[in-house]
C-alpha cells in the first residue's frame, strides 16, 4: 500500500457509498462479514454505505431473493466480528417488508453496536433514493400540519434531517464506488450524491479488496471537488 495514501487523510474520502449490484450472489457466508469491515477497508474510512438490496429488486427470482435475505441475516448475526472490530452497523430502507428473522437480526445488531465508532457500516436493504426523498417530504408535511414548522422553514438542512441517512453525521458520501462494469446510480442516495465523486470498477464485489479500495481512493485523491464553484477552498465548499 502507498503510505502517502494513508497519511494524507485530509485529501481522502472518509464517507463512501458502494453499489454491490447482483454480484452479491458471489458472497459466501464466511466472506460476507469480513468483506465489509476492516480486513478490506482502508483504516481512515469512517462510513461505508452499501446498497445491498433496492426497492426494485423484488422482481428478481424468488430463489435469489431468499438467498440474499438469508445472507444478510447471517451477516448481521455475526456479532463477534463487529465487536472485535468495533464496527457500528445501521440499516436504512423499509425493513417492515423484510423476513421476520432478518428484522430481528437488524434490531439486535443495530442496538448492540450503536456505540462503536471505528467504522460505521450502513446497509441499504429494501432502500430506494426516490422513496427516501418522498418519506422525508411526507414527514415534513406532517410537521407542518402539526404546527411544528412553517412551510417557509423547509430548507436543505431540514430535509437532510428527515432522510434515512440521518443515522450518520456524514450523510453525503465523498466517493461512490460501483463495481461490475455498471455506470448508473440505480436509485441509490439520490439526494445525498449531489456532489459525490463517482468511481466505476469492472471487477465484481467479492473480488473488490483493499488493493481495489486504494486504487479508487487514489483516483479520488487526484480530483478537485468544486461543489458547483471553481476550486473554492475547503471552508467555503463545506460551509
Automatic annotation (TrEMBL):
The lineage of its organism: Eukaryota, Viridiplantae, Streptophyta, Embryophyta, Tracheophyta. Coiled coil: none annotated. Belongs to the UPP synthase family. Keywords: Transferase. It is an enzyme of class 2 (transferase). This is Alkyl transferase. The keyword Transferase applies. GO terms for biological process: polyprenol biosynthetic process. Its cofactor is Mg(2+). Its EC number is 2.5.1.-. The keyword Transferase applies. It comes from the Eukaryota. GO terms for molecular function: ditrans,polycis-polyprenyl diphosphate synthase [(2E,6E)-farnesyl diphosphate specific] activity. Pfam families: Prenyltransf (PF01255). PROSITE patterns: UPP_SYNTHASE. Gene3D superfamilies: Decaprenyl diphosphate synthase-like.
Amino acid at each position: 500500500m502507498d503510505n502517502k495514501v494513508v497519511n494524507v487523510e485530509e485529501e481522502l474520502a472518509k464517507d463512501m457509498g458502494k453499489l454491490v449490484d447482483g454480484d452479491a450472489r458471489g458472497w459466501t457466508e464466511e466472506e460476507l462479514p469480513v468483506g465489509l469491515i476492516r480486513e478490506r477497508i482502508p483504516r481512515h474510512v469512517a462510513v461505508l454505505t452499501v446498497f445491498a438490496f433496492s426497492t426494485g429488486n423484488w422482481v428478481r427470482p424468488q430463489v435469489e431473493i431468499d438467498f440474499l435475505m438469508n445472507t444478510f441475516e447471517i451477516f448481521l448475526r455475526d456479532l463477534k466480528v463487529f465487536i472485535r472490530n468495533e464496527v457500528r452497523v445501521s440499516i436504512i430502507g423499509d425493513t417492515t417488508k423484510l423476513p421476520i428473522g432478518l428484522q430481528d437480526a437488524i434490531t439486535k445488531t443495530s442496538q448492540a453496536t450503536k456505540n462503536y465508532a471505528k467504522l460505521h457500516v450502513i446497509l441499504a436493504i429494501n432502500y430506494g433514493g426516490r422513496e427516501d426523498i418522498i418519506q422525508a417530504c411526507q414527514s415534513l408535511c406532517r410537521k407542518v400540519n402539526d404546527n411544528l414548522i412553517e412551510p417557509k422553514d423547509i430548507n436543505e438542512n431540514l430535509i437532510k434531517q428527515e432522510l434515512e441517512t440521518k443515522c450518520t453525521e456524514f450523510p453525503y458520501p465523498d466517493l461512490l464506488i460501483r463495481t461490475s462494469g455498471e455506470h448508473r446510480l440505480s436509485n441509490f442516495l439520490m439526494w445525498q450524491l449531489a456532489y459525490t465523486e463517482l468511481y466505476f470498477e469492472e471487477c465484481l464485489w467479492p473480488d473488490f479488496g483493499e488493493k481495489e479500495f486504494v486504487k479508487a481512493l487514489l483516483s479520488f485523491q487526484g480530483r478537485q471537488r468544486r461543489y458547483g464553484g471553481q476550486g473554492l477552498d475547503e471552508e467555503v465548499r463545506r460551509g
